[in-house]
Structure formats: C-alpha cells, structure tokens
Specification:
The structure holds 2 protein chains of 2 kinds. Chain A is an alpha+beta fold. In chain A, 43% of the residues lie in helices and 12% in strands. In chain A, strand 3 (114-116) and strand 4 form a beta hairpin. Chain B folds into 4 domains: 3-82, Glutaredoxin; 99-299, Rossmann fold (3-Layer(aba) Sandwich); 303-391, Ubiquitin-like (UB roll) (Roll); 396-478, de novo design (two linked rop proteins). Helices cover 43% and strands 14% of the residues of chain B. Chain B is globular. Chains A and B meet through helix 2, helix 4 and helix 5 of A and helix 1, strand 11, strand 15 and helix 16 of B. Chain B: Keywords: 4Fe-4S, Iron, Iron-sulfur, Metal-binding.
C-alpha cells in the first residue's frame, strides 16, 4: 500500500468505505489534502462537498500536514479530577510539540493521561510531562 | 515459576512493558495476561499467584531473588473477593488472544448452547436474564433482539458499540484488550438469535490497543463463528458517534449526525437493514447468560436492574479500577468502602456518575442504590457506570461550564437545542462565573437546560443539563 490509487483499490466495493479510506490516507500522507478528497469523491461516486463534510466533521482528520510531533493530553473529567489542568501550562510553555486536547483515553483511574501515536502514558505530573515532551 | 504481567493499555501506560522486558532479560519467561482491574497496583506482577505491586524495572532482580515483599495472593485481595465477576471472570487469568486459554475457561460454551437450542430459545434466554443495554439507555436487550429477529430482511447486522467515550469508563476497553473472544462470542450468539450474517465492532480511535487485540482475535476465531463475519471499524474522534444512530451513519461513511427515531435501528438500521446495536458490555454478558442460563443471571441485582454491572472507579479515587457487582450496591459503599475515598486524601466533594452527561452527586446522596430506576428518580443516570471522584478542590461552576463546552465541541449540529444551546450555555456560565447578573443568568441557564433536555434529538444535548443543573442544585455556593 503506497499511493492513493492503491488505497482506493484496496477498499473498492467495501461497505461504507469512506472512513477506512480517510484513515489510510492520513496514515500515509499525514493529512487529507484537497486533491486527495477530489480523487476519493470520484472513486466513491460522491460529491467533493460530501467528502469534505466528512473530513471536517471528525476531529481526527486534518486537511493540512502537522510537521511537529503530536501529544494528545486528556482533558476529560476524570483527568481533571486528577489535576490535568495544572499541566496545561507545562504543555503550552513549549512549541516544539503540538499538544492537543483529547476527551478520554480510558485510563481514568491513573490520569493525567496522554497518547502519542499509539503509545499511552499515565500518572503524568509536571516533571514527567516535561520529560516526555522533551523526548518526542 | 509462572510470571504474569498484564498487557492492558492501562498497565502498559504505567510501565508494564518495561517491567516485562526486565523479567525477560533476567531469563524469566513472562506471560502477558489481561488486567485484574486493580489499577492503583499497576504494574502488578503475578508470580505463582502472589502479587507484587507498582513494580519498576529496577526491582525485577530483587523480586526474582525473593527480596521483595508481595501483597499476598492476588485472588484473595479484598477488592476482588467483594466482587461478583461474571463478565470479568477471566480477568487477570488468561492471555487475551490465546484461543487455548479461552477454551480452557468456559470459552465458546455459550455459542455451543445457542447453536443447540436454536434462535428462538436463545432470544428467550436473554429475555429471561433481564439483561438491559449497558451503554446507558438500559433498554432490555432481549426485546431489541426479538424485534430484529422478527423483522423480515435479506440482510441483518450486529453492530457492537465500542465507542466508549465517556470519561471514567474503561470496561469496554478492558474487555476488548483482555477478553476479546468473549465479545466475539457474544456477537456470534446475537447473530444466530436474530439471523444476522455480518457484524461490525465500531471502536474509537483513541483505543489503539483495543483495535489491535480485536483484529487479532477476529482473525484467530473467524472459523469458529462462520458463516458470521465480524469486522473492526475505527472511529475518528467524534464523541457523538457513541450515540447509536450517529454511529450507524459513521459506519456508512457519513458525517456522524444523529438520526431521528423512528425508524428504530432494530427495523431500519445500518444501510437501512434491521440492526442490533449493543454496547460491548451488553454483548459480553451474553456468553455467560447462555452458558449458565438466563435465570441464573437474573438472580443477581435488584428490582428491574438484573445481573451485574462492571462499575468503573475513576478520577481522584484511592483504589481505582474495575469493580463488577450485582445492582443494588450503594454509591457510598462504592466510593468510600471500596474506592477508599480520594487519592489526594482530601474529603470527597462529589462524584459524577455516567460520564460527561451524568449528574454530579454530593456525599449526602451516597445512600443511592446502583439501580437504573433509583438513579432516574434522583435526576441522575447510571450511564455506562463510570464514577469520577472529585475532592474538595473542585470548582463546580467550572465543571458546569466544561459540560456545556464539551457539548459545544462534540455536538453533531443536527438539532438546534444542542448546537446553539451548548454555546449559549458556555456564554451564560461565563457571565455567572464573572459575577454578572448572576440570578437572572441562573434563571436563563435553567430555562436553557429545560429546552435542551426536552428539545434535543439525542442524549448529548438532552443529558448535558444533568451535570449543569446538578452542579447548580447541589453546589449553589460555587455559582454565587
């Protein structure tokens, strides 16, 4: 699986193929470009507006590439109860890593928690978060 | 010597992989098993039944030399002996994607029973169990199955809602990562009962470990559930897709907008076909029910809330984790006796039960029994049975604001009360927090909450008023 054409061929004929296609496109290209949306729309017999509507609806999909490493910091209630709000300034004190909010990683008894790619981190405090950010 | 370390995402986030690697480097064989659900002890190492808590890699040599004191036999830990583990019976004991382990521990018995007694009797067993939807709505699963079973169609679907987005909930994740075959078996039983040939597990993208385990388990067990076929579909970061009709739209490749009901998904669901949409916990309860009988399941619980509920203790709680218990246990027992109060050691100020759409409940109401009807009467909901504990440093006006803000971020935009109401709610709360026209704005907010509660299409807009109004009702001092 390398190009957009390969991705489209792999998902051809699949029920409700749009989300799996968008996930694959984003995995390979880091974002879903306008050109990609046009080709996907053509392949699935959708309008570009329909594809754009789906891309813009879901928080996971980006229309522009993010060059920095991304850390998703859980800001939901259980992590708030365990002090995540005090860590937000730590995250904002640097710009090398893009820190995005996420609402729940299912690690609610050992928060504050964060996700980097597929790697999970728990029991964060300012020291640990600083170290984590520095090493990304 | 048998060394076991969990490979659940929570254990890994606490360092379980590093610990397991350290054991391996010392020449010891390590089995990676599911989590016991005693999260404050993770990484928890199990050596021939004895537990070693909060283990770090540099302790491994000392543990192997017998120089570290254990916490005793894990299976005899009071946190476990007080539970009634039906759905989580295998937790901590089996390798998640090992078919051998699953077979050796009652695996596939429920499906065999369903195949032996046939579709109709299978639906009857589930009806007799009194099992209600564990996703939050509490709708009787057997009635839903019966509706789908009697709907005439060439294609029917089983959709497992694994979009566990509520804060303080992780039971679905633990099942998918710790006992994925149980969920697949439950789906296969549902398929047999209603005549479905295709199943989807819709898992949120925030759960990469669950996605990997489910995909591996589906590949390993495809021959056992054939001709039924199960496929994993991954969400894309939209909380509202946990709502069943929004989830169906997402599965169809559309924006995850909520559909008006009727038509019910049971009659016109995925791609317009009759569809069972059940939560992970609901489907995971089914193999036990078929193996042991619906009546045996119904003998647990209270009133119309039958069976057990995997309660999730989270937030600022001393002993956080998974506590499966028959309905009827009080909130106070769960939070204070079992949870041990707050992790910070400060007094408990309140708990939120049921995720971001659940009510905030003060300790004065901790006599509430865990029961769908009792909670509804108290203007609260059990939801997915997640309990977030807060200590006395919490600012309830900020939490009420967050509830509205969360609704504004996650609203699908389909209906006006939710789409506009949530943003107006944030603005009104900002005025209140700034001390501007507080009484008038509180009256406005109450009115807005009523509109959202009764005018929204789904639970997102409809239930956001629960945390907001419960915060105002129980903690008025934080708003004035």
């Amino acid at each position: 699986m390398g190009s957009l054409a390969d991705i489209l061929a792999e998902h051809a004929g699949r029920e409700g193929a749009l989300l799996p296609i968008l996930h694959d496109v984003q995995k390979i290209y880091g974002h879903v470009s306008e050109d990609a949306m046009r080709e996907i729309a053509h392949a699935l017999n959708l309008t570009r507006a329909e594809v754009y509507g789906v891309v813009s609806f879901y928080h996971d999909f980006r229309t522009e590439a993010e060059t920095r490493p991304v850390l998703k910091l859980c800001r939901a209630e259980a992590c708030k109860a365990r002090g995540v709000e005090a860590l937000v300034s730590v995250a904002e004190d640097q710009t090398r890593v893009k820190v995005e909010p996420v609402y729940c990683l299912g690690l609610c008894s050992v928060g504050p928690a964060a996700l980097v790619g597929k790697t999970v981190h728990a029991r964060l405090d300012s020291t640990r978060l600083t170290a984590l950010l520095a090493n990304l | 010597m048998k060394i076991r370390v969990s490979d659940d995402a929570l254990a890994i986030a606490c360092g379980a992989d590093t610990v397991a690697e350290a054991f391996a480097r010392s020449g010891a064989a390590v089995e990676r098993v599911s989590s016991w659900g005693m999260h404050w002890l993770e990484p928890l190492v199990d050596i021939d039944g004895l537990g070693y808590a909060n283990v770090t890699a540099d302790q491994v040599v000392a543990i192997l030399a017998g120089e570290v004191e254990s916490i005793g036999l894990i299976a005899e830990h009071p946190f476990l002996t007080r539970q009634t583990r039906l759905t989580f019976a295998r937790a901590g004991k089996t390798r998640p994607t090992s078919l051998d382990d699953y077979y050796a521990n009652e695996g596939w018995l429920g499906l065999a029973k369903a195949r032996a007694i046939g579709a109709e009797a299978t639906v009857e067993e589930v009806l007799a169990s009194g099992l209600r939807g564990r996703g939050g709505a509490g709708f009787p699963a057997g009635i839903k199955w019966k509706t789908v079973a009697s709907a005439p169609a060439d294609t029917k679907y089983i959709v497992c809602n694994a979009d566990e987005g509520d804060s303080a909930t992780f039971a679905d994740r633990m099942i998918m990562e710790g006992d994925p075959f149980m969920l697949i078996e439950g789906m296969a039983i549902a398929a047999l009962a209603v005549g479905a040939n295709k199943g989807y597990v819709y898992i949120r993208s925030e759960y990469p470990h669950a996605i990997a385990k489910m995909e591996a388990a589906i590949a390993a067990s495809a021959h056992l559930i054939a001709p039924f076929v199960v496929e994993v579909r991954v969400g894309a970061g939209a909380y509202v897709c946990g709502e069943e009709t929004s989830l169906l739209n997402s599965l169809e490749g559309k924006r995850g907008e909520v559909r008006a009901k009727p038509p019910l998904p049971a009659l016109e669901g995925l791609f317009g076909k009759p569809t069972v949409v059940n939560n992970v916990l609901t489907l995971a309860a089914v193999p036990w029910i078929l193996t042991h009988g619906g009546e045996a399941y119904a003998s647990f619980g209270m009133g119309r809330s039958k069976g057990t509920m995997p309660v999730q203790l989270a937030g600022n709680v001393k002993y956080g984790g998974l506590f499966e218990v028959g309905f009827g246990i009080t909130l106070g027992e769960l939070v204070n006796d079992i949870g041990g109060g707050t992790a910070s050691g400060r007094p408990v100020r309140c708990v939120q039960v049921g995720g971001p759409l659940g009510a905030y409940i003060p300790p004065s109401r901790f006599d509430l029994p865990f029961d769908y009807e009792a909670f509804a009467e108290a203007d609260a909901l059990i939801g997915h049975a997640g309990i977030t504990v807060f200590d006395d440093t919490v600012d309830m006006a900020q939490m009420a604001r967050f509830a509205m803000e969360f609704c504004a971020v996650e609203s699908c935009g389909k209906c006006t009360p939710c789409r506009l109401g949530s943003t107006r709610g944030v603005e009104t709360l900002d005025q209140i927090i700034a001390g501007k026209n507080v009484e008038a704005n509180l009256a406005l907010l109450t009115d807005l909450s009523e509109t959202m509660k009764f005018g929204s299409l789904c639970a997102l807009g409809g239930f956001t008023p629960y945390p907001v109004m419960s915060a105002i009702t129980h903690f008025p001092e934080d708003f004035r």
